[in-house]
């Protein structure tokens, strides 16, 4: 799997995870319908399945995915919650993406 396919899969995985967590948040904190729990559960099941599509060891996949997740979460903050990230949010994303790159791109023998 090439780097662009992997990162794209990570982004889709992140969207599935955030959606699966955001919908119960809407129910619990914003008074939305409990029916949102059904698509939330499906979204979280999709998230778990998507993580299995990576050929690397599970722990390494989860660790590398974390950097993309943080990035997707801040984009969600901006586009869905309507809150523009601050400078330190961007710094945090840069740090997590550097960590992800070290894990993901390190040569393995």
Automatic annotation (TrEMBL):
Q: Which domain of life is it from?
A: Bacteria
Gene Ontology terms: cellular component = plasma membrane
User: Where are its TM segments located?
Assistant: 6-28, 35-56, 62-80, 87-106
Where does it reside? Cell membrane
Task: Give yes or no: UniProt keyword Transmembrane helix.
Answer: yes
Protein name, please?
A: YnfA family protein
InterPro entries referenced in this protein's UniProt entry, alphabetically: EmrE-like (IPR037185), UPF0060 (IPR003844)
User: NCBIfam families from the entry?
Assistant: PRK02237.1
Membrane topology term reads: Multi-pass membrane protein
Q: Which UniProt keywords apply?
A: Cell membrane, Membrane, Transmembrane, Transmembrane helix
